[in-house]
């Protein structure tokens, strides 16, 4: 199966296009991506997106190769979606009384809340989540989420863009990342999902016309494997939310010059519209447009996405510098995973 192309690989490939035949020393000097460059170059060579030349020089493969690799990833994602369709078919069969040992359908507020809590608390190693509004009362899992993080369970969550745009949504995500959650954002998630250790999963369903809540609990290993593959594929495509580790709550009368750049960068990378960002920050639409334009000018960026990436790299380099200084004084720092 073709390995997914991550953000670091994309940046390294662009670097090779800008510096054809560059030496490792030259490329390292120009590298501004996450992590160390040599392992990233090794991965590019391994998936045929780059070639190592004599003298420790590197050159990028033709963009046609990239297109072929992306086609392979699209095909893999299509297969994962097909497995999810199979899951939906099994759900319908389960409601008719068949395959009850593969999936379980629960309905009603109390039953769904109990099932969600049971799946979450069954996680011992990792919990994976797709978070999409609207939310029912049975999906209030904040206390359980924090218990899992406190117990050392790795928690990865992909938030739909609508979840970030919701009033107060970003503040709730910030609170979870401060507790240790790894968060990313991607528009158009296919469903809500909690997946515990690839052993149990639950898919809360949208409320019915009468407001009735329901969920699918998945037990079958083949379906759990399909859900895990789908989660990993969309996790790789999602944009990381590198949120501030600590901040002072913003006042509703916040001036544009007081807006936290870290917070603004998160929303730029999330792809939020200017209107949505203005609502989250608590300032006027035109004020926010001027603030974004000023940030882009300061960063030398031509697009909103470039501004987000450049600001994120600047923050990462600053954190690395602080970490180095602290280590010299005897402190140790661990970066955001």
Automatic annotation (TrEMBL):
Q: Which Gene3D superfamilies match?
A: Winged helix-like DNA-binding domain superfamily/Winged helix DNA-binding domain
Domain of life, per UniProt, equals Bacteria
Q: Where is this region: Disordered?
A: 316-337
Query: Would you kindly state one Gene Ontology biological process term found in this protein's UniProt entry?
Result: regulation of DNA-templated transcription
Q: Name any one GO molecular function.
A: DNA binding
Protein name listed in UniProt: HTH luxR-type domain-containing protein
Q: Can you name the source organism?
A: Kribbella shirazensis
